[in-house]
Give the backbone structure.
Amino acid sequence: MLETRDLTIRFGGHVAVDHVSAAFRPGTLTAIVGPNGAGKTTYFNLISGQLRASAGSVQLNGTDITNEPVSQRTHRGLGRAFQLTQLFPNLTVLENVRLAVQSRRRHGLDLWSVWLDHRGTLERARELVQRVALADRADAAASSLPHGDQRKLEVAMLIALEPSVYMFDEPTAGMSVDDVPVILDLIRGLKAEADKTVLLVEHKMDVVRELADRIVVLHNGKLVADGEPEAVIASPIVQQAYLGLAPETSLPAQDGAPSPQPSPAGRERGPAA
Ligand SMILES: Nc1ncnc2c1ncn2[C@@H]1O[C@H](COP(=O)(O)OP(=O)(O)O)[C@@H](O)[C@H]1O
Ligand SMILES: [Mg+2]
């Protein structure tokens, strides 16, 4: 089980993630929602180790990993989609995926097992490339892919690592309408695996409604709602946030009588904007 306890980070005077406590169980897909600037990506960075907490802790299966480097957390099964900087731009799509598969495998030192491992690795890489609908780009250099295909490659490499916790931060952002279902199908497939914990930051509420077992709402760095999707979606706090309340505006108390102000068009960063 992944858990954050009072997880907090300050940037100067700004508290980007503010005492967030939540536990994420295997077999559960939790959607993390909230307006732009709410702290969702920063929360992911704290969990994956790209950022160090100012206070609070991150626990994985009972171990405090708050101060561990990214590599150690990855080794423990925390899977954050690869950043473009971690790809090998001059290698092909298939080669990048193969390296990700290989990083997960162990083989003996005799040549026969190296050979079997090499074959198995390549087959697994091909299968993953197929699963993200990149088979026709398998031999293209990673750097030559358009944005949507690069995101698919990131997902293939993430799955190759076989993490126990998957973190997807707006996985379909900037994708064409044809590519979106490929990624959503993959996430749906992971969700069906009982031992996987999936965290998904997603703006599209129809996607959230369909995939999430639970919704956590962040606002101004704070966890402001956490529960069953229907209840959370129906709550005033979410209705206000998604009816266009500007991110900087404090949300009124849940029982208050708000007067939501529509934010200027384009203020909220839409996934495909
Ligand atoms: N490295 C950083 N240095 C300073 N401020 C940051 C940094 N990373 C994020 N922030 C700030 O933290 C807040 C939350 O950002 P972010 O986590 O990206 O929000 P979200 O992903 O919910 O849109 C924003 O106000 C952002 O400007
Ligand atoms: Mg973000």
In short: Residues 40-41, 169 surround magnesium ion (ligand 2) (CB under 6 Å). The beta strands are 2-11, 14-24, 28-33, 55-60, 63-64, 78-80, 165-169, 197-201, 214-219, 222-227.
